[in-house]
Write a structure and sequence with these properties.
132 residues, mainly alpha
């Protein structure tokens, strides 16, 4: 599994996290990872990173809100929000991911999954967040 594919799994799980309570989400996460037929090691890597992002959500959301002028967190599309959350985490808190890679991967995910202007929105917010 490539890093991009792992990132895509984490994005999907972050998206799902918005729709489930904690207990339900754990079950959904476990089912999602089992369906992917991943090794135990890959499942652990994905789960660990996912938990790190979820743990940091209040701080990450604050950074996104501060840079998304006129956009409250609850107004941002769930897809773009999940992508932004993952990218902000990677760019600011994951030393193993170069900032440029985090932004590029986020823009690619937004092109694939986001709305019509999702990629430019994600790129603009991330540019502001990482340049503060």
């Amino acid at each position: 599994m490539t890093r991009h594919e792992m990132r895509e799994c984490i994005f999907c799980l972050l998206f799902q996290n918005e729709f489930y309570g904690a207990e339900e989400f754990e079950e959904q996460r476990d089912n999602f990872l089992k369906e992917k037929s991943l090794s135990e090691k890959k499942q652990r890597e994905i789960s660990d990173k996912l938990e790190n992002v979820i743990h940091m959500l209040p701080v990450i959301d604050e950074q996104i809100s501060a840079k998304a002028k006129g956009w409250k967190i609850d107004r941002i599309g769930k897809t773009e929000l999940a992508i932004l959350r993952l990218a902000v985490y990677e760019a600011k808190y994951d030393d193993s991911i170069p900032v440029g890679v985090a932004i590029n991967e986020a823009v690619e995910l937004a092109k694939q999954y986001g709305g019509e202007n999702g990629a430019s929105f994600v790129n603009g917010i991330l540019g502001k967040v990482v340049n503060e």
